[in-house]
Design a protein that fits this description.
about 250 residues, Rossmann fold, 2 domains, five-stranded mixed beta sheet, 9 strands, L-serine deaminase, lyase, pyridoxal phosphate
Length: about 250
C-alpha cells in the first residue's frame, strides 16, 4: 500500500530554537501517505483480510481517510460512519475517494455500525482497538529504532491508543527495557505548538503535535541530556483551520 518510512530528523535541522537541553529527534508522520500514521494500521488490516470484502468503520477523519484510500486502492466497497461534529471538508474528501459517508450524532456511531454489520453483512474495521491495526502501527516504532537504536524517551500522541500500543510494543520487544514511553492527549498548549511547528516549516494538525506540546511545555520529566523522540502523528489541517492559530 506504499507506507512510507518517514524522515526522523534532529530538531536542530529546523529553523526554530528550543529552550530544552536534550537531543530531540522528530518523526515526521505528517509526511506519511494520506497525511498521518493511520495508513500503517490500515495497511496491515487489509493485508490480513481477503479481497472482495464489504467494510464499515467509524472515524472523525484521519482513519477514515486512510480506510477510504485502501478501499479505492483495492477496489473494495465500504462506508465511513462519521460524527456530525467532524468538519464537512473531511467527509467530502472521503467521498471524493468513492466511499460512502454517513454522518450521525456521536452517540449513535456504534449503533449505525452495528446496523451495517447486521443488515448489510458488512465487516467492521475498528479505528484503534484492533490487533492487526496495532501491529501495523508498530512499524513506526521499528523505524525509530533504525535511526536511534536506544532512545531514552519516546513521546507519542495518544487518542484511542492504537499508535501508542504499537510503538511501545515494537520498542520494548526490541529490547529497549530502559526506554521511557509517554502517551500524550491534546490539551491547552496545542495552539502554540501548532504555531511553533508551522514557523519551523512543519504543517502539523493539533492532535498530531500533542507530543511536541508536552515536551516544550515541560510536561515530560527528566529530559535533560537525554535522547528524545517526538512523534508528530499527522498533518491533515487546511488553511482555514491554520488561520485560527496565533502567529
Amino acid at each position: 500500500m506504499g507506507v512510507i518510512n518517514t524522515p526522523m530528523i534532529p530538531w536542530c535541522q529546523t529553523s526554530l530554537p528550543l529552550d530544552i537541553q536534550c537531543n530531540i529527534h522528530i518523526k515526521l508522520e505528517n509526511m506519511q501517505r494520506t497525511g498521518s500514521f493511520k495508513i500503517r494500521g490500515v495497511a496491515n488490516q487489509f493485508a490480513r483480510r481477503p479481497r472482495g470484502g464489504h467494510y464499515v468503520t467509524m472515524s472523525a477523519g484521519n482513519y477514515g481517510k486512510s480506510f477510504a484510500y485502501a478501499l479505492k486502492l483495492y477496489g473494495e466497497k465500504g462506508k465511513v460512519v462519521m460524527p456530525e461534529t467532524a468538519p464537512v471538508s473531511r467527509s467530502t474528501l472521503i467521498q471524493s475517494l468513492g466511499v460512502e459517508v454517513e454522518r450521525v450524532p456521536t452517540s449513535r456511531l456504534m449503533d449505525v455500525v452495528n446496523r451495517c454489520v447486521r443488515e448489510d453483512n458488512m465487516t467492521f474495521l475498528h479505528s484503534y482497538d484492533d490487533l492487526d491495526l496495532i501491529a501495523g502501527h508498530a512499524s513506526l516504532g521499528l523505524e525509530v529504532l533504525e535511526v536511534m537504536p536506544e532512545p531514552d524517551v519516546v513521546v507519542v500522541c495518544c487518542g484511542g491508543g492504537g499508535l501508542l500500543a504499537g510503538v511501545a510494543a515494537a520498542i520494548k520487544l526490541s529490547g529497549c527495557e530502559k526506554t521511557r514511553i509517554y502517551g500524550v492527549e491534546p490539551e491547552g498548549e496545542i495552539k502554540s505548538a501548532v504555531s511553533a511547528l508551522y514557523k519551523s516549516g512543519l504543517v502539523v494538525e493539533p492532535s498530531g503535535c500533542a507530543a511536541f506540546a508536552a515536551i516544550v511545555g515541560k510536561k515530560i520529566p527528566d529530559l535533560e541530556g537525554k535522547n528524545v523522540v517526538c512523534i508528530l502523528s499527522g498533518g491533515n489541517i487546511v488553511k482555514d483551520e491554520l488561520a485560527n492559530f496565533p502567529d
